[in-house]
Design a protein that fits this description.
single chain, alpha+beta, six-stranded antiparallel sheet, three-stranded antiparallel sheet, 2 helices, 9 strands, 13% helix
């Protein structure tokens, strides 16, 4: 039986649409649910992770919107790569250039953001709170971050500002904090 050119084109297009939906990059069935990304984007627009919701999740050109609200206090560093970098990996002794947003885990109140201070900032990972060093440079349960990536990091108080909180009072004593970090460069 012969089919016309138009019918063959429709069949080929239907097969292409079906095959596109069967990508090997699909998340496993037990992966956390994520909102569907716009058709033009391969990464999700919104990501949820352990009480943190990140909007503009994959757009590394814009400040992400971070919402957090959790009554639990984590006892260990938690990390999730939203965008996995492919460049140079950081180490705990690296000097890094990053864009970041920092919020309190309990209520989502922002305490700092490089996005609000004119752009990326550079510093040694040896000069920041331990959870930031471990979350970027690597720690048990956290692979080192690579340039080009965006990562959510939930720091328990012991790896953040501890029992005293921050000097300016923006982070209370014993408060877990969240950073969303874009790694731009590693030296």
């Amino acid at each position: 039986m012969m089919i016309g050119k138009r019918t063959a084109a429709v069949v080929a297009l239907s097969a292409a649409v079906l095959l596109t939906g069967c990508s090997s990059d699909d998340p496993p069935a037990d992966a956390p649910a994520m909102a569907t990304a716009p058709a033009s984007s391969a990464a999700p627009a919104e990501v949820s992770f352990s009480g943190v919701v990140l909007d503009r999740a994959a757009d590394l050109t814009a400040k992400p919107r971070v919402a957090a609200k959790s009554a639990t206090k984590p006892t260990a560093l938690q990390v999730k790569d939203v965008v996995t970098g492919t460049g140079t990996a950081a180490t705990p002794k690296s000097v890094v250039t990053v864009q970041y947003v920092g919020v309190r885990y309990a209520d989502g109140k922002q305490f700092d953001a490089s996005w609000d201070h004119g752009g990326p900032t550079s510093f040694s990972l040896q000069q920041v709170v331990p959870g930031f060093t471990q979350g970027i440079g690597g720690a048990p349960g956290a692979e080192p971050m690579k340039v080009g990536g965006r990562r959510i990091m939930i720091l328990p108080a012991a790896l953040g500002y501890g029992r005293t909180g921050s000097q300016d009072g923006s982070i209370p004593p014993d408060a877990p904090i969240v950073f969303v970090v874009d790694l731009i460069a590693v030296k």
